[in-house]
Design goal:
- It contains 3 helices and no strands.
- It is globular and about 35 Å long.
- It has helices at about 15-25, 30-45, 50-55.
- By secondary structure, the protein is an all-alpha fold.
- About 0% of the residues are buried.
Length: about 60
């Protein structure tokens, strides 16, 4: 894996960030770890696995 040298920023509501941060911490991961894993998966597979219509309907 190459050296991390770029920043990614995202806007999200506070409650969701806090819930996600707690859930990730319970798994031994940080928010940055989760974003890195997501981006690596998308880059390696050239695909995004979630059904967008279902995902957006729950927001």
């Amino acid at each position: 894996m190459s050296t991390a040298d770029t920043y990614v920023r995202a806007r999200i509501d506070t409650a969701t960030k806090e819930r996600a941060t707690e859930a990730l911490a319970a798994m031994g991961l940080s928010v940055s770890d989760a974003i890195r894993l997501l981006m690596l998966r998308i880059a390696n597979d050239a695909s995004f696995y979630w059904r967008h219509d279902t995902l957006w309907a729950t927001m």
